[in-house]
Design brief:
This is GDSL esterase/lipase. The chain is an alpha/beta fold and 373 residues long. It has one domain. Helix content is 35%, strand content 10%.
Length: 373
């Protein structure tokens, strides 16, 4: 997700803490365009895989309402861009974030829901997120389509090259506009859920995604590694990135269901550790290459582990079962016209088997994306 003078966002499945509904406009895509998704969003499904607002929405709201930040937001496969002027601040409690919702601020629209004329007149943010894909273009759900991180960045590049100049004609002013923005990137989860198996060496797979993503049959695949994507974003004009690591996937309700013992899949959690361990070095590499770039780690792995270790502290009464979910052929699914969500959604960590509730998203914004001195 990108925050700049406007809000531009990118995302994917399981990494779908940012997607605002682009998949509604992609043929054969995974969608959340039915109730009970959006049940607390005026009882309106929007394509967000939660009961109301996503992490991206709440992050933008708290910036605009408590920091007087008027810059745009940009989201990529979970890339979030926030004004550099808003780097240092303290998030208020979740109740205050909820109160900020009363400001009725407009949320960044899905890129694919905008006409060409609308794109060329949008300064308040765009959402590029697409549920289902990942860092690798090979990561995609069976029988479904989606936008990989590379495709999302290509769309952002079109925004920068073709749309924003219609509103910011001076190239220097446009460069400053982008430089005073923050990118929130949350990718990689789908790569492990959909594209990793027990035959992969965890160290190799992490290296494959972060640094050496290439195929001997197609050398151009190298350009899709996360490191190269970061360089590409810098070339486009991005200067400030907040990069989310991968949370404890083995503790998702969908994974707990597969263990058959009600416990987290610790093997899955261990498989992602090389990625999380190498990611900070990747961020440092970019900062070393580009002294005017700032990259900050958002540690969702530790955040969720802290919640699981002390549920009462965070106000949750259920951290294993989804608020919305029924068993369908051994899998947990939140399906239309059948699933009835729990009544007290503020006490559930997960809304469905793979996605957190709005309350959890609030806590994440409050505790995870604080930039400290």
């Amino acid at each position: 997700m990108l925050f700049s003078h406007s809000d531009f966002q990118l995302g994917s499945k399981l990494d779908s803490t940012v997607d605002a509904g682009n998949n509604n406009y992609i043929h054969k895509a995974m969608r959340a365009n039915y109730l009970p998704y959006g049940i607390d969003f005026s009882n309106t499904p929007t394509g967000r895989f939660t009961n109301r607002k996503t992490i991206a929405n709440l992050f933008g709201i708290i910036l605009l309402t408590t920091v007087n930040c008027t810059l745009p937001l940009v989201w990529f496969g979970f890339i979030l861009i926030i004004s550099s002027k808003c780097f240092k601040f303290n998030f208020l409690c979740c109740d205050v974030i909820r109160e900020a919702i009363l400001y009725n601020l407009s949320l960044p629209p899905p890129y694919l829901n905008l006409t060409e004329a609308q794109r060329k007149a949008t300064m308040d943010g765009i959402n590029y997120a697409s549920v289902g894909c990942g860092i690798s273009p090979n990561t995609k759900p069976t029988r479904f389509d989606c936008w990989s991180l590379q495709i999302q960045i290509e769309a952002f590049n079109r925004t920068v090259q073709e749309d924003l100049p219609c509103m910011i004609e001076d190239p220097q002013e446009l460069a400053e506009y982008l430089a005073n923005s923050i990118l929130f990137i949350s990718m990689g989860t789908n790569d492990y859920i959909l594209n990793f198996n027990n035959h992969h060496d965890p160290e190799y797979f992490a290296n494959y995604l972060l640094i050496q993503f290439r195929c001997h049959h197609d050398p151009e695949y190298f350009a899709n590694s996360l490191l190269i994507q970061f360089r590409w974003l810098y070339y486009i004009g991005a200067r400030n990135l907040v990069v989310n690591n991968i949370g404890p996937l083995g503790c998702l309700p969908s994974m707990i269901n597969k263990t058959r013992n009600g416990q987290c899949d610790e093997k899955m959690n261990q498989n992602i550790m090389p990625y999380n361990s190498q990611l900070p070095q990747i961020l440092k590499t970019i900062e070393d290459e580009y002294p005017n770039a700032t990259l900050t780690l958002a540690n969702s792995y530790d955040f969720l582990q802290h919640i699981l270790a002390d549920t009462e502290k965070y106000g949750f009464t259920d951290v294993k079962d989804p608020c919305c979910g029924v068993y369908v052929q051994g899998e947990i699914a939140c399906i239309p016209n059948y699933s009835t969500p729990c009544d007290n959604r503020c006490h559930s960590l997960f809304f469905d088997a793979n996605h957190t509730s709005e309350f959890a998203n609030c806590i994440f914004v409050r505790d995870m994306l604080i930039i400290k001195d």
